């Protein structure tokens, strides 16, 4: 693609335009968009026009821009996230129906947890996770499971990049390395109040080749309900079902 | 963006590259991609490289290209589809739990039905709908509801574009215009076997301003179960709940 004087390609500018939108800014004026995407206003106008014509952007009632259905349809018609979601949904629905609390599916992406799917009942406890939202690795049970069952070089890179990663003192764990060993040894993560003080997250790995996690399956329940040991078998069987539905070898 | 000699912009070529992937072709070699996107092989290589670096594409184990998590995350972080889905999910989960069959949410897009969400039980009847998939308007209950509660100019454009739109003779309806009037009058659509002979689709509109449908909420059940009249109140109350959750005025 053509490069601008500043050396970045059209695609880079396009990605910055699209990435400017998010849960915190679902709609933007063209001026705000230019600022957030760090492109000249004239460029923002030109790219926005092209994106509008492909329905990658749309104008809302107030004339502000939002991400369009065209982009959503394209991304959701076929992707790694969809394959995973398709395999997991029947199991997640059953777990949600039985446990009655948030049931979620997540993968490791960059240095964060990317939420692929979340099912919630109307009475579920508070939960920070949103579909396509990010959560910190070392502050969530899903993240700890994904990291504990990641290849060693991924673990080491994460620990190097987050030297101050810590767990609440109440866990009684010295550091993240000890926490990862614990999670790997017991095959699940269950931590109280890492994100919300009032909740406990319980997560297990969906294991692929070489016992590397391809995803984490978890629930978030009210704290101190003593439910971990009744919920764990449900999650472990669900995770095996998902792995099998994805064509992974299950021990 | 820069235009090629053939006059189409980089964005057009980019959209064609991304649009080449679909449920029928989740993974493509670079050669197949160039053919489907109608771009020269060298262009396909160059654009694919850029898209790989942004995780809009990824390489699978065999070296073929697939849509990447980056695109999925971007599209799902914020969009009209997400707002609708977020509002609808608690109601859809309840309906799915009570009815035990496919529960789906769809919107009108171009001249087709775009499926935004589908919840299915493991024992649900056969169903052609896929998330982000398209269905024909005049062969689905959801499509008939969306068209019946669309602005008049949308209806007329559809009927002009589909002069041979027809319903199975067994419905006893003369033509699509009569079918739309029926659906609009009764406030729901329930047709046997339009897509699958063995199933009945039942759909109601989620109504926004001016009693225009912003979405269709429906279930697919086994045919001839005589369930329409027991399921209809569940769908109608669910649709009102979704409209209210979206901030629409509910009569």
Summarize the structure.
With 251 residues, the first copy, chain A, is an alpha+beta fold. Chain A is built from 9 helices and 8 strands.
Describe the protein:
2 copies of one chain form a homodimer. With 251 residues, the first copy, chain A, is α+β, with helices and mostly antiparallel strands. Chain A folds into 2 domains: 10-75, Arc Repressor Mutant, subunit A, CATH 1.10.10.10; 78-245, GAF domain (Beta-Lactamase). In chain A, 43% of the residues lie in helices and 19% in strands. The first copy, chain A, is built from 9 helices and 8 strands. Chain A has helices spanning 10-19, 30-37, 41-53, 69-77, 80-99, 141-148, 152-161, 176-186, 228-245, and strands at 57-59, 65-67, 102-109, 112-119, 134-136, 189-192, 199-207, 213-222. Chain A has a 6-stranded antiparallel beta sheet, with helices on both faces. In chain A, helix 2 crosses helix 3. Chain A is globular, with a radius of gyration of 21 Å. At the A-B interface, helix 1, helix 3, helix 4 and helix 5 of A face helix 1, helix 3, helix 4 and helix 5 of B.
Q: Assess the beta-strand content of chain A as a share of residues.
A: 15-25%
Task: Name the CATH superfamily assignment of the largest domain in chain A.
Answer: GAF domain
Question: How many domains of chain A, as an integer?
Answer: 2
Question: Quick check: average pLDDT of chain A?
Answer: 84
| Main β-sheet, spatial strand arrangement of chain A | 5-4-3-8-7-6
State the CATH topology of the largest domain in chain A.
Beta-Lactamase
CATH architectural label of the largest domain in chain A: 2-Layer Sandwich
